[in-house]
Amino acid sequence: MLKAYLEYYRETFELKCSGVQPDRMSERSSPPSTMSLHGLIRHLAGMERWWFAINFAGLDLPMLHYRDDFPDDDFESLDGDPLAALQTWREECARSREIVDRAAGLDQVGVVERNGSYSLRWLMLRVIAEYAQHCGHADLLREAIDGATGA
């Protein structure tokens, strides 16, 4: 069920981004917010890498769109092609799926402790909540861009 819900939200997010012209993906909804579809794509790609690859699996990978001196880089520095960012997000999702599929089970504990140990079960619930929140943001952003709403 956790895998199914996570996939549902990943697919929902992808639907929110589909059909949007690349030059409009960086449009921000309403100042002072810096949120955009492009920024959400970058944020979710980084979130997938951070939680599944770096923290849970312990892979030695650089952070995406994040620096300690500039933690909001994912939303504020929209350099690069949004379609390339979307492809990076897809690749991070694929890596996360592989990590989950290789796990010993939902009780497996992440390699890197963050405020104590956490299980794959907890991690998947955490990521589902992140997607649920940002799919709502993406729906509002998409409606502001071209009026499209719904799943």
Give a quick rundown of the structure.
58% of the residues lie in helices and 0% in strands. It has 151 residues and is an all-alpha fold.
Average pLDDT, rounded to a whole number, is 92
Q: How big a fraction of the residues is strand?
A: under 5%
**Number of helices, counting only DSSP H or I runs of 4 residues or more:** 5
Q: Taking Cα atoms only, what radius of gyration do you get, to the nearest Å?
A: 15 Å
Following the backbone from N to C, one meets helices and strands in this order, namely: HHHHH
Helical amount:
55-70%
- How many strands, which pairing sense, and closed or not: the largest β-sheet? none
CA-CA gap between termini = 20 Å
Shape: globular
Q: What is the number of strand segments? A: 0
* Unreliable segments of 5+ consecutive residues: none
Model description:
58% of the residues lie in helices and 0% in strands. The chain is mainly alpha-helical. α1 (2-17) packs parallel to α5 (120-146) and α2 (37-56) packs antiparallel against α5 (120-146). The chain is globular, with a radius of gyration of 15 Å. The chain starts with a helix and ends in a 5-residue tail after the last helix. The model has no long low-confidence stretch (mean pLDDT 92).
List its salient traits.
151 residues; mainly alpha; 5 helices; 58% helix; 0% strand; globular
